[in-house]
Amino acid sequence: MKNFTHLYQSYKYSMVRITVRTKLGDLSNGSAFHIGDGWLVTAAHVVNGGDIEEIVSEYCRQDLQIEKIICHRDERVDLAILKTNLDLNHYLTKTTIHGTPEGFVQTDHIEIGGHLDDWIGDELVLSKALLMGYPPIPFSSDPVLLASEGEVNAVVDKYNGPHPHFVISNMGRGGYSGGPVLSEFGFLLGVLTESLVVNNQSEELGYSSAIPVEPLLVLLQENGIYPGKNKETIQVFLEGADHWDDQT
Question: From CA 200, how far away is CA 204, in angstroms rounded?
């Protein structure tokens, strides 16, 4: 049976918690993750849901500051990228990790997958997925990063928005929003944006839904952002796909 310990241990360093004070005065957690050069990915509703009270990386040596927030131009696409001063160079160059599981990678970012919308069929259905984020835990004295193993149950086209979405078996909980959904094959499958529910039911009763990576790649490309090693993914899969379309 596949064990996801190596994925969790590799990518937990890229995770960031965002705490927002809502318009009602309540504190609410959301999740974000690093894709390189201080750029974070999250769900747009996390940063648009109120005033940001705190943004925290457990492994960064300085307090995080947000320099810029860019939301997707289509309001139906629940994605945002944040430019911050996140720097994990000390972890990469000065920290030695002992007892790492097989497959562990010492990295400061999550690698974006290259599965464009038109390429997504049902090939990933029943493949395993790892979700990470910061849902509140009752009676816990501090926020804690949660990791949940699940699987891809379906790929759906929503009538209220563009892009296919991955339905995953992980239970939807507030605080997972903006968190990464990692494929068992080690790349970013999508971003957790919502729990699909009807009639205002509890999100725990819905289906967890993750938007795939194409709108994220487009958002980065449109703004001239090529973060770290993910630059190649944008150029090969997005700009290369445009070039291939011109030749056909």
Answer: 11
Rg of the Cα trace of the chain?
Answer: 17
**For 209-218, how does the pLDDT look when each residue is reduced to its tens digit (9 = 90+)?**
999 999 999 9
Instruction: Reduce the secondary structure of the chain to three states and give it as a string.
Output: CCCCHHHHHHHHHHEEEEEEEECCCCEEEEEEEEEECCEEEECHHHHCCEEEEEEECCCCCCCCCEEEEEECCCCCCCCEEEEECCCCHHHHHHCCCCCCCCCCCCCCCCCECCCCHHHCCCCCCCCEEEEEECCCCCCCCCCCCEEEEEEEEEEEECCCCCCEEEEECCCCCCCCCCCEEEECCCCEEEEEEEEECCCCCCHHHCEEEEECCHHHHHHHHHCCCCCCCHHHHHHHHHHHHHHHHHHC
* pLDDT tens, residue by residue, 177-204: 999 999 999 999 999 998 876 556 656 6
Q: Which two tokens stand for residue 2?
A: 């596949």
Burial class (CB in 10 A: 0-12, 13-18, 19+), 224: exposed
Contact 34, 42 (CB under 8 A): no
Please list, residue by residue across 177-199, b when 16 or more beta carbons sit within 10 angstroms of its beta carbon and e when fewer do.
Answer: bbbbbbbbebbbbbbbbbbbeee
Amino acid at 20: V
Contact between residue 189 and residue 166 where contact means Cβ atoms under 8 Å apart: yes
Q: Which two tokens stand for residue 177?
A: 């929003």
pTM of full prediction above 0.85: yes
